[in-house]
Amino acid sequence: MKYVVITGASTGIGYDAARYLIEKGFHVFGSVRKQADADRVQNELGERFTPLLFDVTDGAAIETAVTQVSEMVGSNGLAGLVNNAGIAVAGPLMYLPLDEMRWQLEVNVLGQLAVTQKFLPLLGAVPNAPHPPGRIVNISSVSGKVVYPFMGPYAASKHAIEAISDALRRELLIFGIDVIVIGPGSVKTPIWDKAQELDTELYSHTPYKTIMEGMKKVFVGQGRSGIPVEEVSKVIFEALTKEKPKARYALARKIFSGWLLPRYLPARMFDNVVAKRLGIPR
Question: Is 15 a catalytic residue?
Answer without folding.
Answer: no
